[in-house]
Amino acid sequence: VRSMAVAHPAAGPGLVAELTLTEIDTEGADDVALALALGCWTLLGMLDRALDLTKDHVRLREQFGQPLAKFQGVQFQLTDAEVERAGLDMLAKYALWSTATARPEAVDDALALRSAALEAADVVFRVCHQLHGAVGFCDETALSWLSRYSQPLRRLPWGLSATRRLLVERAGRTGLTGLYA
To answer: 134 or 18, which is more confident?
Structure first.
């Protein structure tokens, strides 16, 4: 749980090495931060698309003579999902900036971003599946494919609990700075 498989020059061309939490502090920190941040950006794109599909669905689908989008409960759920997505968008921009400027806390920022991305994905996909109903789980819908293909991004290199544990171990030494403070 304390290591991450990354391409590393010391391992030779095309080989993968395991970097431990201690080694991340000194070697490959920029690469690790970038790898974590870019995975979160991909997940953010999937969340954007899932919300777009869901908004279109609730505008089109009618229940009791009116579109689902007119129901207050549906509006509340979509608002919750959009708040998660918008917050993740801002954190993703900050973490990418932190990585691009080679800030010493870039790995901490990327771990905090990953933690937020995994939480946002749970909320957004739950809401989207719920508002699509049973059709949201059918392979004929794009939402089902998005949700399924988000799973590797959500589980690798670490799941939510392992990501949080790594963040706490790292932040316990220096604390979070910047946007995550």
So the answer is: 134
Q: Closest Cα to residue 1, out of 173, 151, 160?
A: 160
| Residue 50, amino acid | A
Task: Provide the pLDDT confidence category of residue 7 given band limits of 50, 70 and 90.
Answer: very low
**Contact in structure between 19 and 2 (CB atoms under 8 Å):** no
CA distance 166 to 79: 31
Four-CA torsion 96, 98, 103, 104, nearest 10 degrees: -80
Residue 117 has pLDDT above 50, yes or no: yes
3-state secondary structure of 141: coil
Report cis status (omega within 30 of 0) of the bond before 157: yes
Which pTM was predicted? 0.78
Distance CA 128, CA 135 (A): 11
CA dihedral sign, ordered 25, 28, 33, 39: negative
Amino acid at 155: R
